[in-house]
Amino acid sequence: MTDGVERLRVELGDRGYEIVVGPRLIENAGLEIQPLLRRRQVVIVSDETVAPHYLPQLHDSLSEAGIVHHTVLLPPGEETKDLDHFGQLAEEILGFGIERGTMLVALGGGVVGDVTGFAGATLLRGIDFVQIPTTLLAQVDSSVGGKTGINTRLGKNLIGAFYQPRLVLADTTVLTTLPRRELLAGYAEIAKYGLIRDAGFFAWLEDEGRAVCNLAPAALRRAVMTSCAMKAEIVAGDEREEGDRALLNFGHTFGHALETETGFSSRLLHGEAVGLGMVLAFDFAVRLGLVGAEESQRVRRHLDEMGLPTRLSMIGLTGIPAERLLAHMGKDKKVRDGRITLILPRRIGDVFVMKDAPRDELRDFLAEAA
Ligand SMILES: NC(=O)c1ccc[n+]([C@@H]2O[C@H](COP(=O)([O-])OP(=O)(O)OC[C@H]3O[C@@H](n4cnc5c(N)ncnc54)[C@H](O)[C@@H]3O)[C@@H](O)[C@H]2O)c1
């Protein structure tokens, strides 16, 4: 195995699995996957942008390990996560004559991972799948934890399943071809881990964030490993989001409102919305007297320095009626009986769930947010 590779385990009993982080893992994917196979057949699912870069290496590696492989390519982008594309994907995979022992392999970002995982959860009532995440966001977040799903016209990820992969191979070499903007969007999720429960990690990111985003190998590996370790620990303690897993949604309720406003389009990437959402959560917590203003300024300063949007004006979203944003927030999956739940900070490295956030305060805050 290549130098500089680290491993950790998601402890979920007989559904537990390894996360492998390091360079050039796709070259060795066949050897990693082979011991997990019940049948020497895999179906790779990827997208048309990722495939030209990394599919040939994956094919070679599987062939060398004596594994029969088929491939389905999807169009890139969030639109692929709809029912029509899912139907086509399911029938294409079934068309290869798969059996319960066949393994699916997701080679791509969060879109490919979510859709492939959902195919794994549902085809033949459940077949194994492996994640090979190729965006930073997918490496530190979406490939770990077993949330799979697709979108409907009524909202994002409304059809899905908790279904864990058998292995995650986070090959850090692939990030060299990822557009800078996508990389930074993934970085926002890394910063999230520091903000929710590890102030020391956030302080480290303040020093080393640039090295992470410049893909300096040691810094990048530490950032991905630390993020995956925290997600693995939280998921192991609360797989179905009945408790602490909700803390991973820090920044997401504000972010979701902004994504809804921008139509989940490339105008605002998911990670960018989360970054901005985290800053708004800090600002709102300052307004409620939960946290000091200097903490909020520190978060904004760091995300600013990294090149992420930290004000609504930076993405042309000022002047939206507060009622409309509030209505978007009210459609979040975390809403209970119309009450808005927010994850809010007590300080950097410590957040909590506030059920039934004060609506009037929130409306005033959103009306003034710029
Ligand atoms: N399951 C979860 O727990 C979870 C968590 C967070 C987000 N998500 C989901 O993840 C999705 C977003 O994922 P994403 O940000 O990875 O977006 P994505 O999958 O759309 O990838 C972003 C773009 O980068 C391209 N790309 C991917 N890897 C590349 C590479 N190495 N080089 C060049 N281009 C590359 C893709 O083709 C795509 O155009 C959303 O649908 C979101 O709902 C799921």
Helix proportion of residues, in percent? 40-55%
Helical stretch count? Answer: 13
Global Rg? 20 Å
The gross shape turns out to be globular
Q: What labels would you give this structure?
A:
370 residues; alpha/beta; seven-stranded mixed beta sheet; two-stranded antiparallel sheet; 45% helix; binds nicotinamide-adenine-dinucleotide
What's a quick, concise take on this entry?
The chain is α/β, with parallel strands linked by helices.
Task: Give a structural overview.
It contains 13 helices and eleven strands. The protein has about 375 residues and is of the alpha/beta class. The N and C termini lie far apart (about 50 Å). It has a seven-stranded mixed sheet with strand order 1-2-9-6-5-3-4, with helices on both faces. The chain has a two-stranded antiparallel ribbon with strand order 7-8. A hairpin with a 6-residue loop joins strand 1 (about 5-10) and strand 2. It binds nicotinamide-adenine-dinucleotide.
Write the layout of secondary structure elements.
Elements: E1 6-10, E2 17-22, H1 29-33, E3 41-47, H2 51-64, E4 68-74, H3 83-95, E5 103-108, H4 110-122, E6 129-133, H5 136-142, E7 147-152, E8 155-162, E9 167-171, H6 180-197, H7 199-213, H8 217-237, H9 252-261, H10 270-287, H11 293-306, H12 322-329, E10 342-347, E11 350-354, H13 359-368
Parallel strand pairs: 2-9, 3-4, 3-5, 5-6, 6-9
Antiparallel strand pairs: 1-2, 7-8, 10-11
Helix pairs in contact: 5-6, 5-8, 6-7, 6-8, 6-10, 7-8, 9-10, 9-12, 10-11, 12-13
Nicotinamide-adenine-dinucleotide is lined by residues 47, 49-50, 53, 76-78, 81, 108-112, 114, 134-135, 137-138, 141-142, 145, 147, 157, 174, 177-178, 182, 270.
